[in-house]
Design goal:
Layout: E1 9-11, E2 23-28, E3 35-41, E4 44-51, E5 59-61, E6 64-66, E7 71-76, H1 79-90, E8 102-103, H2 104-109, H3 127-134, E9 135-139, E10 144-148, H4 150-166, H5 172-177, H6 186-202, H7 207-214, H8 220-229, H9 234-240, H10 261-268
Parallel strand pairs: 1-7
Antiparallel strand pairs: 2-3, 3-4, 4-7, 5-6, 8-10, 9-10
Helix pairs in contact: 1-3, 4-6, 6-8
Length: about 280
């Protein structure tokens, strides 16, 4: 039985009373590779995010005071996002080969000691269906093997976007993200909806996969709007007046994605001796 100082305040989906106890695991984020806290319960995968833990706060729980004043949000996480980078690495694709097929046990059995909890993904419900959605499958009487298929991944991602676009109006946070388009033509609003969902889905992808996905979408009306509302820069003024204010063009600043509080703390930890993500799945000798 947990002592009072071991308790945490969590908000998460309702689970059946007979469900197994949750298992907290540390897995690499599918977008950044940084250590991220997940929960496995009743065959489902959930992401845990810590909210507002930097202040001096505490919780009153019944007759006790919990010193950890953080709030933990536990939300369902689609395992396919986790599978994409794992399978991408495991297939060992080259310029002359599409890579190798692997059995279910081989996909998770070659994980390095840095993330042993990755093996637990094999026990998730519907894992075979998740793999089949994004992989070429060879099914014989002797064995069933899988290999990531880029086209299937893109079809799955675009379908995910279509589903969210269809549900956009029922998700307040998404509606708020395009509040600036309320007075704009319907064509602009339609593109803004798709663009907002595209950004949301891309948060769970590596830079390379996010770039591939983005290449499938064009937003001409939003591009026109941006070009019409963009104010001239000082360098443009200088060129029109005969004065070149920029001796050398400056590289466009790329904003880094924001990390959660938990990721910031883990990022500060010592990485001495840690292996790159591609080594997680290297064959052990």
């Amino acid at each position: 039985m947990a002592t009072p100082n071991q308790q945490r305040i969590c908000i998460g989906p309702k689970v059946p009373a007979h469900a197994d106890n949750p298992i907290s695991v540390l897995l690499p984020s599918p977008s950044s590779g940084l250590p991220t806290r997940f929960v496995i319960q009743d065959g489902g995968l959930y992401e845990m995010q810590m909210v507002d833990s930097e202040g001096l706060r505490s919780w009153f729980v019944n007759d006790t005071i919990q010193s950890d004043g953080a709030l933990y949000l536990i939300t369902p996480f689609d395992p396919v996002f986790m599978l994409i980078p794992i399978l991408d690495t495991m297939r060992q694709k080259t310029a002359v080969s599409e890579g190798k097929f692997l059995m279910l046990e081989g996909i998770f059995g070659s994980c390095s000691d840095q993330y042993p909890s990755l093996r637990r993904l094999a026990d998730l419900k519907n894992m075979d269906r998740y793999l089949s959605a994004i992989c070429d499958v060879r099914d014989s009487a002797a064995m069933k093997t899988f290999r990531l298929d880029d086209e299937k991944v893109m079809v799955w991602l675009k379908k995910k976007i279509d589903i969210l676009v269809g549900k956009f109006g029922s998700i307040p946070a998404l509606v708020e993200s395009i509040a600036y388009t309320e007075s704009l033509p319907e064509a602009c609003r339609s593109e803004a909806v798709t663009q907002s969902v595209l950004k949301l889905v891309s948060v769970n992808l590596s830079d390379s996969w996010a770039t591939k996905l983005s290449a499938n979408y064009q937003f001409p009306e939003l591009d026109k709007l941006e070009s019409r509302t963009q104010l001239p820069s000082m360098s443009d003024f200088g060129k029109r007046s005969g004065m070149d204010l920029d001796d050398e063009p400056k590289a466009k600043e790329v904003k880094k994605p924001k990390m959660s509080v938990g990721q910031r703390k883990l990022a500060k930890a010592s990485t001495a001796g840690m292996k790159p993500m591609t080594s997680f799945f290297a064959k052990k000798t």
